[in-house]
## 1
Amino acid sequence: MASLSSADAGEHAHSWTNVLAVDAPANPWLSGDYVRDNREQLQELLLEHIVLTVETIVIAVLIAFPLAILAHRFSRLATPVLSTTGVLYTVPSLALFAFIAPFTGLRARTVLIGLVMYALLILVRNILAGLDGVPDDVLEAAQGMGYGRARMLWRVELPVALPTIMAGVRVATVSTVALVTVGVVVGYGGLGLLIIRGFQTFYRAEIVTASLLTVALGLTLDLLLAGVTRLLTPWARSRS
Amino acid sequence: MNVLGEAVVWLNDPLNWQGRNGVPFLAYEHLYISGAAALLAALVALPTALTLGHIGRGGGLTVSVTNVTRAIPTLALLTVFAATAIGFGNRATIIALSLFAVPPLLTNAYVGIRGVDRDVVEAARGMGMSGTSILFRVELPLAVPLIAAGLRTAAVQVVATATLAALVGGGGLGKIINSGFGQQDPGQYVAGGILVAVLALLTEGLLALLQRQVTPAHERVGSRRVQRRGHDAVGASAPGRAAEDEPVSVS
């Protein structure tokens, strides 16, 4: 109990900020003035956020595909590949950035490497699940038609696995958009910069605007990818 | 630049193991925040999931809760809470983290209850068991392995996310990393990173053991029966299938 009450003391140490929150007269949650006055910066950081997200997903997909295909071909590799990416996923992002930063410096690259490591688990898992989920009779039919390994992968396995793969890409994208904000500790967090700055200056409109923009960005990219999935899998549409 | 050496030096400095900014107190604070958040989430999620699973409704709800929370950055919610009447500090952190722990608990428990063989439920009903006793004496025991899986996912995620509390004035081991970055002291932030990573991996390992304990041998992942058809996908088209171990939102 003694240590519990000292935790409470920690909260009281911050209570002056609470007083500020109650007393400050004009600190609205949303403000058109804020958006107008900071339009350029909002656009700039939104762009940084988008660029970091897209780069992350493209690089992660490029790494995840060979890994997943290897794990699919040689099932002995599946467990080591999945558990390595699993361990990377368990390490909290802040710790991951702390490990990478000494080698890459406080740069966008540090955030990028960390985010790619996170996206890998989701992508590898879904690509592998998609490939493993192709029905045996489909494979046998393709074999019977004289498909070779490469052509089978490209023309049969990947298309059949596409919905599962795209589901993974969507989850990875949305998670990455949310995670970019943590990059603020190494100076590249896209809209996360405004969230933390708004927190430090206790500017509610800044916190809420940046948060809403981040959520909106995640949902927009998710919808876009859902549309892409529909375009890429016309057969799934006619079936349902 | 030997950062690892600097980190070891930092970890060996007795000053870093004393007082309110020392490793033991911050680790305790980290676990206290995580435990409280996981408990709060379980109190909300489990009764909801058991009820919905028992009456067989709300599958869409669990999926949409998961999807929406995934898009919300933890940092944003922590900051927004700090700016409300909840205020700064550990209370805001606990509430924010518990919100993110709800989806894995909810989904797994729901899928666990729904996944119980309908024949078994029919047999129980035929024996004259009431709805409540079917839930508590048939469905719940059979759903325990999946509920444990959800608890593990949620707890690991909470321990990982609790690190972020330091960015908004909260406590826990994240403080070491955050102030290390603030002072541009690589030895300190790498040391903090090591501590946080070890705590997260330990939590994962311990809860994996616990999950194994409550899972019947033939259902364990890695047993031949389950491994036959590959690995679960995340967020795949069939919402139920992917429940176990699904990473829900990242920290």
Note: Chain A has one domain: 39-231.
## 2
Amino acid sequence: MAGATRTRLVREDTSGADAVAALAVGVASVLFGLGLAAMFEVVALTGALAGVPTLPLLGGLLLVQGVAVVVFGVGSRFGAVETNPRPDAGIVAAVAFTLIWFVVGGLVASQVLSLGLAGWLLGAILTGAAGFAATVLPREDVGSTLPAGVVTALVGLVFLSGYIAPTSVWDLGWAQKASLTAEFMVPVVTVFCALLTGWAAAKAYGGFGARGRRIGAYLLVYLNAAAIVGVLFALVAFTVFKGVPGLFRGLTFGPGVGPESTVVLFGASVTFSWPVYWPFAMNGVGLLNDLNGVLPAIVGTFWLVVGAVLFAVPLGVGAAIFLTEYAERGRFTQVVEVATNGLWSTPSIVFGLFGFAFLIPRFGNGKSLLAGMLTLGFMLLPLVVITSREAMLSVPDEYRDASAALGVTKWQTIRSVVLPAALPGVVTGTILGVGRIAGETAPILLTMAGGVFVPGSQTADVIGGFQFTAAPPFVSNPELLQATSALPYQLYALITAGVGASGNVGNPDQFRWATALILLIVVLSFYAVGIVTRYYFRRKLDYE
Amino acid sequence: MAQTTSEETGAEAFGHLVRRFRNFVDETDREALAVVGVMSAALLAAFAGFLLVSSYTVAPFAVFLVAAGYGWLRHQELTARLLTLTTTVSTILILILIIAFIFVEAVPVVFYESATVFGIEIPGLRMFIQPEWDAVSSPIRYSMVPMIHGTVMVTLVATAVAAPLGVAAALFLSEIAPRTVRELVKPGVEILAGIPSIVYGFIGFTVLSPWASDQFDILGQGTYLFVGVVVGLMALPTVVSVAEDALNSVPESMKSGSLAVGTTDWQTMTSITLPAAFSGVSAAVLLGVGRAIGETMAATVMLRGVPKLTDPLYNVFYGQETLTSLIARNYGEADGLQMDALFVAGVILFITVLVISVGSQYVEWRMRKKFGGDV
């Protein structure tokens, strides 16, 4: 549909002008890259690139880019380039350019002409109005290129003129001292101008009009999507890069190198030693350890997740069954729905406070693993309800009718028709929810977590901990009622403990990054499994 | 439970319920009724025992388990129904318990921080009319003003990041992206939601904060600006997924109608899809704001932890404390009134986020109604 305008009948072959516009887009992307590189200090502003000092180089490129965009727009206006623009550039562009020119005018009036508040406000309003007029009054080709190009060219001139040095600092004069530095502002302004002129040039490349707007907008939308994926990738890659040395320190393979484990089965105990020794995941922190690790936190996280799932999944699935199968749709289901959604968006720290006030006094007045499990279970519950309900609602009514026609009871229908059909959705939702709670720190901060450096002897042994007592609860498990650690809390404790508290950990920084990495691995593997499961079931459903 | 519903819906509904209950009793087998009765009574007793911190809670709970087991074997239909009803009620009960417990804990400090206006003493008012938080030296004051200011600053920055980027990404995923690209980007956005907040906080603390201090020539570390950026990144997936759902719910016929008159797909998006999904998209932004308000760990490790206002108020380069980070930082050494003050912060957070959640649900409900779909 958009390609239809590209045929010769409608549009003359304007390859020369197209090339200019495409070149402008290219220069914009170069500027964008340079700006980002300067922001992350890959390229030094004080240094030089290919023999040219960085700041004048950026200035020159910006000037060329700005002029090119303006020339293209004006050329199109006077018929030198064949385009099909609209009568004006549109309200979104007008608002954006008004704001930009408002800021530019204000900056020039207050910084260069050093006018007072009234002065710079007047200047800002005047230039803002000029920007608005320049966008709205002329045809679209001028309206969307001239304001952008002139700003960029102006910035380029400022960079070229040497009015600002790479080391310039403008004190904002606030009571709490803060300054804008050229080190920060130059890259930011460069990136911004690159986006602005890149958009204008992309629009010009499409010949303005509906097609031009589409290309300009798509450029920004694609860039945004790429940036989100880029940030994700950068975050994960950075953590992996920093964490790997600490994580795999001392990792050895071979028969009998690992710690010994004893498995008791039907009275017969078998002792074997692991064929792998991975200190970071198999040790606690201790004076006698050759290399320290976070085993208690890993085990703590494992039990937390198990406990939360055991609590939340039966409750959540049960509630979903009642809501979808038994309850009549009406006020009651509506209230429950609002309540579960409200619970789902309740901040995690509020769950922590609740656990602190409600659970801790009921479980021996101290932080405990059990309190942490239940608090996380409370957090997981609404998600299980929501996803299970969605999954059950998407089971076609024909299934239920077919089953009912066989003369079975409602519960039999639910058990043997609805639940199996809804299972994939329930499982996927639960796995994703578990990923979320496994990484939560705030709730367990108040309900369960203990020390900074946890010795290996404090690894929770929940199964071995059950014992029968003569006193009223009759069953007790001291392991469940003890404070223990979990990976997210461990990381938080390591951060707040600072560099000083090294706790016999050889390299605290490495230790921290390794903890962050192992936490990331644990949580993201839940997500990966959840996403793959969903993908698998969806494909299966597609081909059914 | 039946009692509470009936009070809301009036005498007529109550009569209806009573009739239904009678029918139920008449139709059901005596033994099944007894089992169900024992189960309900035992469960209520266990709950009461738990609330009263009794160590005998386990006894009624055991009775419940035995009754449920027997009921499961003999009267599965009815037992299953009662069990699922129980789970539903307990979901609501958890919300009610949360409200009750955090409100009750917050009460003492509310009375401590009373202020007199026009001769009338208003409890809790002093927490909002003066900006002093001092838990150590006299006069001891627990003002919420600095933390509310901090939360507002962080949320504003976060919304400025998450709203435009999130809506653009949702548009990309639902309307623009080719199938293969979508299959890659969508899990990416989900994984972004999966990175634990403490990992974001750790990276912000070790990388972003020192960098920002250097770039803006700030004394010390911690700025609302960059906490806001990080929190915005964390709120982004919420905005994307909810907005994408809203965009997808616009009927395909509307879009094809627009395309059929010869518009480009971008024109269709801006003049048909986005306006039609506007309420859903704003619900997405609202939910993102809710996430940003409640975000704890990144703020806790990146902020300074000094509860006072920034000077001037719009100075985003200094990050003092938010409502969430106040709780996470001070729960350890707090007791008495200070602990109660943390619960006040919790109450403010809870109410704000609940209002946002209910508001966005209302907006979404209206949108679904507009498209004539399933309400």
Note: The first strand of chain B starts at residue 115 and ends at 117.
